[in-house]
Amino acid sequence: MSTIGSTNTELEVSTTLEPTHDGDHERMSHIVLEGFKPKVGKFVSAGNSVVEGMVNGTPVRALCGKEWTPGRDPKRYPLCPTCAEIAKARGWKLPAH
User: Fold this and answer.
1) Which of 1, 8, 57, 64 is deepest in the core (most CB within 10 A)?
2) Which of 8, 69, 56, 4 is nearest to 34 (CA)?
3) What is the pLDDT along the chain (97 residues), one digit of tens a residue?
């Protein structure tokens, strides 16, 4: 999990793997926005965390819109170019991969 800073908020994201589905021949790791912390106030969840997904089998959603239940080591796969493009466009540093 990486923390990405912006001018107004601190965003917490994770990268994780999207498993192969019918017709999907590429395996990639994706960036999941888990929530943000406003300059004033408490952390605001943006949905299920990757850890919660792995433990409870609940799906997560990547920046690119992909939904899946995480379960594999994301460091073994290339980073999704769409997730990377979205993160860069928002001025976020990409998570170490």
Assistant:
1) 64
2) 4
3) 444 444 444 555 555 544 444 334 358 889 998 888 888 999 888 888 888 888 999 999 999 999 988 888 888 888 999 999 999 998 888 877 6
